[in-house]
Amino acid sequence: MKPIWTAFIAALVALLGIGLGPLAQEGSSTLLGFFPVLLALLCLGLALIGKLIPATLAVPVALIGAYLPIGKLSALGNGSVAAWGYWANFWGFLLVAFFAAGRVSLSEADGNEERAKKRLRGALPPATVPFILLLIWQGLVIGFQVPKGIFPGVHHVYNQLASSLGVLLTDSYITFVKEVQFGFLIGVSAGFLVGIAIAYSRFLQNGFLPIAAAFGAVPIVGLAPVLGRAFGVDWQSKAAVVVIVTFFPVVLNTVQGLTQLDTLKLELLKAYAANPWQIFLKLRLPNALPFLFNALKLAAVLSVISVIVAEFLIPGPPRGLGQRISLSARQGAYDTVFAAIFVSSLISITIYQLLSWLERSLTGWHPSYREEGH
Amino acid sequence: MLDTQPNSKTVQISDLITIRDLNMIYRGRGSETVALKNANLTVAEGEFISLIGPSGCGKTTLLRIMADLIQATSGSITIAGKSPRQARLDREYGYVFQAPALLEWRSVLKNVILPLEIMGFGKEERETRAKKLLEMVGLKQFHRQYPWQLSGGMQQRVSIARALAFDPSLLLMDEPFGALDEITREAMNLELLRIWEETKKTIVFVTHSIPEAVFLSSRIVVMTPRPGKIEKIIPVDLPYPRNTDTRESKAFFDLATEVREALRDVH
Ligand SMILES: Nc1ncnc2c1ncn2[C@@H]1O[C@H](COP(=O)(O)OP(=O)(O)OP(=O)(O)O)[C@@H](O)[C@H]1O
Ligand SMILES: [Mg+2]
User: For residue B115, how many other CB atoms are within 10 A of its CB?
Assistant: First the structure.
């Protein structure tokens, strides 16, 4: 591999900031010290070598390097805004991490490489990006000394998360275990059954399908108050919103999956004089699985979004994450808002990954997984 | 007149397939294709019949009518004394499609097992039969693979194993070896002949290859396009069992020439 010149130049910029630049507008100290200089020199060297393992090592080194000016400026504690030394240092190291991780993920795998290296190639970018984003967030908030009431720093959100984790988990229980889970299960199973009925009935296919697509587009903003009136302010009304948003994508995908068939395969089963139940079980259902999982993943995303909005629109005594967000936002407690968003995102990602995993294990034969092999 | 007697080897048994004045017209938007015009053919039990003719002359159409996958516009057809529909419901035939038509979510073994599952064979019997057939088509070690991991020719061999799985007495095969290389094709020809002679099946076999038709068949049906017609039926009086020497005999060469000329007359 060639040296990573982009990372090398970025490391030079960082070194320049460490040695020469003033850290803050007032009380102009520099970051100059043994440890930061060591990190910068390390990055320079690793970037020059440019091989897979050195480039990988450069990533955590640079991430630590990018945190140093943030820590130093916070420790200074005089409320002063950052100067160019801070920014050169901060962006320099961040770019080193970015370019080094990029080089690792884009590098060509050579045929007889060990498994571990292949895995590294895939794992490094998703492991690096969250850190880079968090550092940018924190670096900007500290660098410009943004007040907590306008935009909280990562540490504020973290503190809030740690201190009110219990409350947030109780909220999550209402939102996910009650509202999303019940709504999702009912909506998906109803959608699946109705999808089957439509797939097998020409009458419904012509009559219901065009309307179903239109129904799917009904905005929850309009629907939520009506459902609140009908089902009360408790979790049932929000579950009803979830039922509605999950139902239609599942119907449409089930119908497609059951009917978009290779006619040759149908003729094959016909030649064996297979009965309709066998045709369903051995042909239509497996054919529909990839469609169904697309619908499930879409439904999962939609249900989280809509349940949060529904909690905004139908406030009620049992507090969910959505209500926590709207309440805290109104009080200017943005650290809580972000903590709640963080918890909700984490749970959504977990659900989505679970579905993806299930999909891979059940439809591993599908063309979209072919590259990975079996 | 077109119904030449079946070859000397088979003692005359009953007729398995009778086709009388069969017509097939595909009606599209403002267009009509006469795919079969006044076809007459009788296939005796135990015969090996090849259908040969240029692309679009109605070979697949004729086979699909026999299999009750489509219905003729007019004329009559019986299979084992029944209507094609009844014959299909009674599972009288195995069909090899022009394309492999494998189910991509099933492994090779599971694909071969599919008809046995549908017809209610026991679990153990299914496995033993499928494995034996996969060995026969030279794919034993591939039974765990999925269709997309096989080459086109290998996929077609799986579909042949699948058609043989429930041991039907009538085989309808639509260019089963079209995707195979010459060497594999000749090996499969020998294998098919062996099965045919051992199990006394009746085979209707579509091909584009003149040597293949001569080598395998007891009679060759030469078809012509626009409109699809049965032009000539050529009996193949080469003794069975046939082997590699058969291909080098003078009689083989003469028959191939006769078929070639019959096809050439068409154009
Ligand atoms: N489903 C269909 N609808 C309309 N026309 C068709 C249909 N199937 C076949 N035909 C027409 O019927 C004629 C015969 O088709 P067929 O598939 O039987 O030919 P074939 O002899 O099997 O040709 P090939 O050797 O290329 O497979 C062709 O002209 C074709 O265009
Ligand atoms: Mg054809």
Answer: 25
Predicted local confidence at residue A226, as pLDDT: 86
Beta bridge partners, B24, equal B36
A262 in contact with B, Cβ within 8 Å: yes
Q: What is the CA radius of gyration of chain B?
A: 18
Q: Is the pLDDT of residue A284 over 80?
A: yes
Chain A positions in Cβ-Cβ contact with residue B114 (cut-off 8 Å): 272, 282
Distance between CA atoms of A11 and A270, rounded to whole angstroms?
A: 68
d(CA B217, CA B4): 14
State whether residue A270 sits within 8 Å of chain B by CB.
Answer: yes
Token pair listed for B120: 């209610």
Q: Hey, of A272, A281, A284, which one would you mutate to test binding to chain B, going by the most B CBs within 10 A of its CB?
A: A272
Task: Output the pLDDT for position A370.
Answer: 59
Architecture of the domain spanning B1-92+170-177+205-267: 3-Layer(aba) Sandwich (3.40)
Q: How many CB atoms lie within 10 A of CB A192?
A: 19
The ipTM estimated for the assembled molecules is 0.88
Helix and strand numbers, DSSP H then E, in chain A: 17, 0
Low-confidence ranges of chain B (pLDDT < 50): 1-12
Domain at A162-373, CATH from 3.20.20.70, 3.40.30.10, 1.10.3720.10, 3.40.718.10: 1.10.3720.10
